[in-house]
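Whiteboard transcription, Tuesday session. T.W. wrote the structure tokens on the left side:
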């Protein structure tokens, strides 16, 4: 089990499934490999902890699952070269041009020959169901990666009524005030990364750059607004975690603070250590979500019941 690096948070709009339901869904959609030699991608749930067989792992009030996706790597350039070579061979040998439908058939024949011999790439996407809060956290760089694990759960459960969390105030508006005044709520502190964007596709990105300098302030005065900003969240004792908060409320480059990692429980057994680290991470994520939503005016309530 790895600590999350890119976090997308979803709210159940109806009652969240139980641990037993998630476990059954993961078993229905367990990873079984390609169904035939022409498959280009296949996926399924695998054990959360290496060396174990549990496809759903319960830790406190959280349920962890891990989706494995394998895909065959077919470089588009290599496919095009092979198709072009086959077409030239036919045109030279038969002294005629190859058109539309025949070109498509040639491409399909080329793919049928290349797919079984292609290398495969493996990817894992972890997700956690928070049964107390009615949330799902996905460790996913993109919405498509998050959708993959959500759709796999949906297929096993029959339905999965979720939507991304929303706040009453947009990040662009609130973070603009933070950066202009270099003033944030007590539990927050600004980092040195941000992305500013405007209405005419104008974008400016800063890395390792103090956000209070005149250059950044001039961009804000010109109408650009923060689409992403680096933040650190703290509790009463020390920093908890840092990340880049995007305007869709996803967390990028999420990392627990050194202070939190130094205070974590040390276990002799690697599985016990993984469970302890997972618990630590989920407490930190819960803290981050609470602070972010409060700073942005509170979470917009999900329709159709569920948690507020």
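and on the right, the sequence the group agreed on:
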């Amino acid at each position: 089990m790895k600590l999350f690096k890119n976090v997308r948070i979803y709210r159940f709009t109806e009652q969240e499934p139980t641990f037993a339901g998630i476990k059954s869904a993961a078993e229905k959609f367990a990873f079984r490999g390609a169904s035939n030699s022409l498959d280009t991608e296949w996926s399924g749930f695998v054990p959360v902890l290496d060396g174990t067989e549990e496809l759903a792992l319960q830790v406190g009030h959280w349920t962890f699952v891990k989706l494995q996706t394998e895909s065959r790597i077919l470089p588009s350039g290599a496919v095009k070269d092979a198709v072009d070579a086959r077409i030239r061979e036919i045109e030279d040998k038969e002294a005629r041009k190859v058109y539309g439908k025949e070109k498509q058939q040639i491409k399909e024949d080329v793919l049928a020959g290349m797919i079984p011999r292609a290398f495969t790439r493996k990817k894992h996407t972890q997700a956690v169901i928070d049964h107390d809060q009615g949330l799902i956290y996905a460790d996913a760089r993109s919405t498509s990666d998050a959708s993959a694990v959500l759709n796999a759960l949906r297929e096993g459960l029959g339905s999965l009524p979720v939507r991304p969390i929303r706040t009453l105030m947009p990040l662009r508006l609130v973070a603009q005030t933070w950066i202009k005044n270099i003033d944030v709520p007590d539990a927050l502190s600004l980092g040195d990364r941000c992305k500013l964007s405007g209405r005419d596709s104008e974008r400016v990105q800063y890395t390792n750059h103090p956000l209070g300098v005149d250059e950044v302030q001039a961009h804000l005065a010109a109408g650009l607004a923060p689409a992403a900003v680096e933040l650190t969240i703290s509790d009463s004792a020390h920093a908890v975690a840092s990340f880049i908060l995007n305007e869709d409320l996803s967390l990028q480059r999420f990392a627990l603070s050194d202070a939190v990692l130094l205070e974590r429980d040390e276990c002799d057994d690697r599985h016990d250590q993984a469970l302890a680290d997972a618990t630590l991470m989920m407490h930190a994520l819960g803290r981050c979500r609470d602070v972010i939503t409060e700073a942005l005016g509170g979470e917009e309530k999900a329709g159709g019941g569920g948690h507020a």
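Someone added at the bottom: Confidence is low (pLDDT under 50) at residues 304-308.
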